[in-house]
Amino acid sequence: MVFMLLFFNMEYKLSILLPTIDETDSLIKTIDIIFQENKKNIHEVIIIISEKKTTSQSIEVIENLKNKFSQIKVLKQKRSMLGGAIRDGFEYCSGTHVVLMASDYETDPSEIKNFISLSLLNPLSIITGNRWIKGGEFKEYNMFKFIFNFFFQRMFSLLFKTNLTDLTFGYRLFPTNIIKKINWEETNHAFLFETIVKPLKLKINVIEIPSSWKKNNESSSNFRLHFYLDYFRIGFKTLVSKSETLLIKNEKNNSYNNNQSSN
User: Fold this and answer.
1) CA separation for the pair 260, 244 (Å, rounded)
2) Within 13 Å and on the Cβ side, how many CA atoms surround 67?
3) Number of domains composing the chain
4) Which of 150, 181, 151, 199 is closest to 247 using CA atoms?
5) How large is the angle between the packed helices 190-201 and 227-240, nearest 10 degrees?
6) Which one, out of 179, 185, 195, 207, has a CA that is 20 to 30 A from the CA of 88?
7) DSSP annotation of 173
C-alpha cells in the first residue's frame, strides 16, 4: 500500500522501445503518430540499432527524426537479436513505464493511447495487447503460424492457469520497476514470450487490451523456425522454476503481491 501511494505521487513518464534494422517509412509513420497522440506522456523514445545490421537508410531516417523530436534517443545494442536489443533497452530506459512494440508498423502506434489510459488507472499492472479477443485481429497472418499460435496460446494459458489468451504478442506496456528486477534470459523472438510468462509466475497483475497485428511489407523478418523450440523451452523452464530464481539476485528478497487478472 505504501509503495502504491508513492507511485501515484510520481509523474507518469513513458519510455518507448523501437528496435530498428531496415525500417524507414514505417518508422517515420510510427514516430509521428506516437508524438501526435501521446506527446504529454512521452519521456523518451529509444530507437535501438545494430551496428552490423541497421541499414544506412534507416540511420539517415533516425538522424532526421532526432532533429525533429528532442525526446528521441539512439541506443546501440550490445546483445544479439531482437530479444537482446529489447533487454538492452530495458536496462537503459528511465521512464516510470516502458512500451515494447515494433518499429515496422506490425503493431499499431495509434493504439498506444489506449495502453496509456488503462495504465494510468492501473499503474502497477502490465498492459498487454491481445489479437484474439473481440476488437483484436490478425491481418495477412501466415496460416501455419496462425494455427500454431492458437494451440500454443491455449496450451500455455492452461499450464500457467491464466485467462490471458495472447502470450506471445510483442506489444506491451510495463511498469519499469518490474522489468528491471526480473532476470531475463532469451535474446531471440522467444523473449517476447518470456516477458509475460515470468511476470505471470511472479503473480504480477496483467491486463489484456484488444490489439491488431498487420503484416509488415517494408522490413525483412529475422525469425527462424528453430526459435519455436526456444518458446517451449523458456515456457516450461519458467513453469517449473521457483519464483525467487526469476529475479535478479539483489531483488530476490522483494516480492510482488498483486493477484493475476485479465480483462
Assistant:
1) 17
2) 6
3) 1
4) 181
5) 10
6) 207
7) E
C-alpha cell belonging to residue 135: 476488437
Q: Is residue 5 one of the residues assigned to a domain?
A: no
Q: What is the pLDDT of residues 29-45, one digit of tens each?
A: 999 999 999 999 999 99
| Residue 49 resides in a domain | yes
CATH code of the domain covering residue 80: 3.90.550.10
CA distance 33 to 47: 15
With b for 16 or more beta-carbon neighbours within 10 A and e for fewer, the 69-100 pattern comes to bebbbbbebeeebbbbbbbbbbebbebbbbbb
Q: What is the mean pLDDT of residues 160-187?
A: 96
Angle between helices 25-38 and 112-121 (to 10 degrees): 40
In a domain, 32, yes or no: yes
1 in a domain, yes or no? no
Find the angle CA(84)-CA(190)-CA(86) to the nearest 5 degrees: 30
**What residues make up the domain containing 132?**
10-251
Q: How many helices (H) and strands (E) does the chain have?
A: 9, 9
